[in-house]
């Protein structure tokens, strides 16, 4: 180091500027963190078992998969693909509608500025449970209870939507302008009227945006939960990959990507026009 | 009515009741809602054409049955879970690392102010980001298990490929939001392209970058717990085998371990992010 506190007074300024350390300013941690990270990396990579032969085989399969992607086969499994798509799309829509309808009261209940403390606690714990459980794990249980098929998938997605929509809705209600709530309250409005005239206009654009976003997420998830038997395009995809039919798998993935992109652009366009 | 009410240029008659919307807007709104309800009913019927309602009616009994089998969780199974848990953490961490390494160049190519070409390179980078995001990590894992065989490596690569889109998107947005004046100042010193990025842009996006990385690591911990369901290693494999053998008390133990891991990783990630920002 050319610069030390003492050398400043003797007018020997450093010839080269060195960027001061960012983020981690204590020297000890700056040394310790990379060392710890390196130790972890060695340990973690050590527990990795890589077989060269298997990987080489994987390369040739990968080439076949890429080929399947480039020449997707929509026709030979079209019946299954169509069935899976219909299941996925219908399940997505119904689950989003039901999920949002259930989330509205829960979201209102989970807003600190509207509901009494016991209601708040109950609603927040419902949200926490729904958010901490993975869709796939919920789907496993619901398939075990309701049997294979899209109904279990519908319930999974609806349940998962509650955590997402209710939490963001509640946060939004808590951020709503208090003066409007006060104004409506001053007219002698009841609780329901308060929600209708003071809260609803403030959060409605956001709720619509959230619902559209959740629709998008639910479609993506519906492409996955079929793997554990909850219906939808995931089941078709799983079968195609199990049978090494990479051209059909490629076709399914292309369809999924196309729908997701369409949903993303469509929902952002809709949100923009609605707000 | 007094004379004051009929000034020129104003309607002679005001409605007695205040309405939130014009009649036309209300009609459109109602039409929209009715269409949505009709679509919902139709979808419901299509979706449930093959549903066996006997199973649905049976579900509460099944739930009680599974619940009673799950309780109490089997604590003796815990030692067997430590190694898969370590594997899961490795899948998430190494996967995040790989994803970040792949995502950084993609983000710089996708950001409008750093991309070498908005016509050619930027759309390609954006396409990489979108396609990575639109395929779930479980599907990536399904593909990779078929390609390179079951095990940790498939999980790590799946997580890495999935993370590109998330990290890439947030990072390129952060790069686009950087202050142009600092870049200009660095350019004015005669710095080259790489130096501009190093001194002008990297310091501005670094806190955001670490925040994004921690956030993704947290998400990846969640996702890596279930990748084992398709054979990509980690605790999910134990979950799958316990479900297959109907060992519900073991399932309960695994779920508790997963939940604890997720909660701890979330708290850790939130703490690091708060320290950064």
Describe what this molecule looks like in 3D.
Chain B: InterPro entries: MetI-like, MetI-like_sf, PhnE/PtxC. Chain B: The chain crosses the membrane at residues 27-47, 91-112, 141-161, 247-268. Chain B: It is found in: Cell membrane. The complex is a heterodimer of chains A (275) and B (277). The mean pLDDT of chain A is 85. In chain A, helix 6 packs across helix 8 (191-225). Chain A has helices at 27-46, 52-70, 78-109, 117-132, 135-146, 150-175, 178-186, 191-225, 233-242, 246-274. Chain A has 275 residues and is mainly α. Chain A is extended. Helix content of chain A is 76%, strand content 0%. Chain B is mainly α. Chain B has one domain: Orthogonal Bundle (MetI-like fold). Chain B contains ten helices and no strands. Chain B has helices spanning 23-47, 53-70, 78-110, 121-134, 137-148, 152-176, 180-188, 193-227, 235-244, 248-276. Chain B is flat and about 70 Å long. At the A-B interface, helix 1, helix 2, helix 3, helix 5 and helix 6 of A face helix 1, helix 2, helix 3, helix 4 and helix 5 of B.
């Amino acid at each position: 180091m050319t610069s030390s506190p003492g050398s400043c007074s003797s007018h020997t300024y450093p010839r080269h500027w060195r960027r001061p350390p960012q983020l981690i300013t204590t020297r000890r941690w700056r040394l310790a963190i990379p060392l710890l990270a390196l130790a972890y990396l060695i340990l973690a990579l050590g527990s990795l078992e890589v077989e060269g032969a298997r990987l080489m085989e994987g390369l040739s399969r990968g080439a076949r998969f890429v080929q399947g992607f480039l020449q997707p086969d929509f026709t030979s499994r079209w019946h299954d693909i169509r069935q899976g798509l219909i299941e996925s799309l219908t399940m997505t829509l119904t689950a989003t509608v039901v999920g949002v309808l259930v989330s509205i009261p829960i979201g209102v209940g989970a807003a600190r500025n509207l509901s009494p403390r016991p209601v708040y606690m109950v609603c927040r714990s419902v949200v926490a449970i729904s958010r901490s459980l993975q869709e796939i794990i919920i789907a496993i249980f619901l398939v075990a209870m309701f049997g294979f098929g899209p109904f279990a998938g519908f319930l999974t997605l609806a349940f998962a939507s509650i955590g997402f929509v209710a939490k963001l809705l509640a946060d939004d209600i808590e951020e709503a302008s208090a003066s409007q709530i006060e104004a409506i309250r001053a007219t002698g409005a009841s609780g329901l009227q308060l929600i209708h005239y003071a809260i609803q206009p403030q959060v409605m654009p956001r709720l619509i945006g959230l619902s559209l976003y959740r629709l998008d997420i639910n479609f993506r998830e519906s492409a996955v939960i079929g793997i554990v038997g909850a219906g939808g395009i995931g089941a078709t995809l799983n079968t195609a990959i199990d049978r090494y039919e990479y051209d059909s798998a490629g076709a399914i993935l292309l369809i999924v990507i196309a729908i997701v992109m369409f949903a993303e652009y469509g929902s952002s366009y809709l949100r923009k026009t609605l707000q | 009515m007094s004379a004051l009410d009929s000034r020129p240029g104003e309607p002679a008659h005001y409605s007695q009741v205040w309405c939130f919307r014009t009649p036309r807007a209300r009609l459109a709104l109602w039409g929209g809602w009715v269409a949505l309800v009709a679509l919902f009913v139709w979808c419901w019927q299509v979706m449930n054409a093959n549903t066996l309602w006997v199973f649905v009616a049976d579900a509460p009994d099944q739930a009680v049955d599974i619940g009673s089998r799950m309780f109490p969780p089997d604590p003796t199974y815990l030692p067997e879970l430590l190694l898969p848990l370590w594997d899961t953490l490795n899948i998430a961490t190494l996967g995040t690392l790989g994803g970040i390494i792949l995502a950084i160049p993609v983000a710089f190519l996708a950001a409008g102010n750093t991309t070498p070409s908005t016509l050619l390179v930027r759309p390609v980078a954006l396409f990489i980001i979108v396609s990575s995001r639109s395929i779930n990590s479980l599907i990536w894992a399904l593909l990779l298990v078929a390609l390179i065989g079951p095990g940790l490596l498939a999980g790590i690569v799946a997580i890495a490929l999935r993370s590109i889109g998330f990290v890439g998107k947030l990072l390129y947005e952060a790069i686009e939001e950087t202050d142009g004046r600092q870049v200009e100042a660095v350019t004015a010193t005669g710095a080259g392209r790489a130096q501009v990025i190093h001194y002008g842009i990297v310091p501005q996006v670094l806190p955001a970058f670490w925040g994004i990385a921690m956030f993704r690591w947290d998400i990846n911990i969640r996702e890596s717990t279930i990748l084992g369901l398709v054979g990509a290693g980690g605790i999910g494999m134990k979950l799958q085998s316990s479900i297959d053998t109907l060992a519900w008390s073991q399932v309960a133990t695994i779920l508790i371990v997963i939940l604890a891991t997720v909660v701890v990783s979330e708290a850790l990630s939130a703490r690091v992010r708060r320290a950064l920002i």
